[in-house]
């Protein structure tokens, strides 16, 4: 069988560096309370998550935000069999695009919900995760869409409270540079953005970008021992 080669374009943006309003926006969000009501379907998804945490034996919790088809969640569940991996994506269509021939491990659940509401509920109830992954989120590359990026969202300041280990991956370095600076603004801790060497792709996007020859980047905020 002929090997299929991906041809994926790099991110194109009218923004050439870190957005000039980044730190001002993050600081503004830290000074204010985000009061948007939790959506009903997100509350239901959170209760489903709570039940899984209570019912499924685990040593650690791993959160896989923006998990898409769940490929990364399944990868993590197989890699860390003593954990419960919780994959979250807002799109029912993406979650149901998963390859039916790939079984979901018993230590993995996939739920449809908006990440920002789940993050708020977890922070409220002091649910913490050994690892938190945000892999290849929508970059919103246009400068005028800056506030749609995760570090431009009012809930960004909660992220350091959710896990001692947070990992972000993207094929657009500016996104990670912004995320890193925003993280430092919130937590006072500086972490680097490094080029990622891909041994085994965790997501379909990672596979596509890697096979297209694009450079991939990684931000890791690790303030304690990692799960090994």
Automatic annotation (TrEMBL):
CDD domains given in the database record: AdoMet_MTases
Known catalytic reactions: guanosine(46) in tRNA + S-adenosyl-L-methionine = N(7)-methylguanosine(46) in tRNA + S-adenosyl-L-homocysteine
Domain of life: Bacteria
Gene Ontology cellular-component annotations: tRNA methyltransferase complex
GO molecular function list: tRNA (guanine(46)-N7)-methyltransferase activity
The EC number(s) this enzyme carries: 2.1.1.33
Keywords assigned: Methyltransferase, S-adenosyl-L-methionine, Transferase, tRNA processing
InterPro entries linked to this entry: SAM-dependent_MTases_sf, tRNA_(Gua-N-7)_MeTrfase_Trmb
Xref: Gene3D superfamilies: Vaccinia Virus protein VP39
One Pfam match: Methyltransf_4
Role this protein plays: Catalyzes the formation of N(7)-methylguanine at position 46 (m7G46) in tRNA.
Protein name in the entry: tRNA (guanine(46)-N(7))-methyltransferase
Annotated source species: Aliikangiella marina
């Amino acid at each position: 069988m002929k090997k299929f080669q991906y041809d994926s374009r790099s991110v194109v943006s009218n923004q050439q560096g870190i957005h000039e309003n980044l730190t001002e926006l993050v600081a503004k969000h830290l000074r204010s309370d985000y009061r948007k009501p939790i959506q009903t379907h997100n509350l239901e998804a959170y209760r489903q998550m709570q039940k899984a945490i209570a019912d499924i034996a685990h040593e650690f919790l791993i959160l896989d935000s923006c998990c898409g088809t769940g490929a990364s969640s399944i990868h993590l569940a197989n890699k860390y069999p003593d954990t419960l991996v919780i994959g979250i994506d807002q799109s029912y269509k993406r979650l149901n695009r998963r390859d039916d021939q790939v079984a979901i491990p018993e230590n993995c659940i996939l739920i449809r919900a908006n990440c920002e509401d789940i993050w708020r509920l977890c922070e409220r109830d002091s649910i913490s995760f050994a690892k938190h992954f945000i892999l290849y989120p929508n970059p919103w590359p246009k400068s005028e869409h800056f506030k749609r990026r995760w570090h431009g969202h009012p809930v960004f300041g909660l992220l350091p409270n959710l896990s001692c280990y947070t990992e972000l991956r993207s094929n657009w370095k500016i996104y990670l540079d912004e995320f890193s600076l925003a993280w430092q603004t919130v937590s006072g801790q500086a972490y680097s953005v490094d080029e990622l060497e891909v041994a085994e792709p965790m997501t379909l996007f990672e596979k596509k970008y890697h096979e297209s020859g694009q450079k991939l980047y990684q931000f890791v905020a690790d303030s304690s021992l990692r799960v090994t």
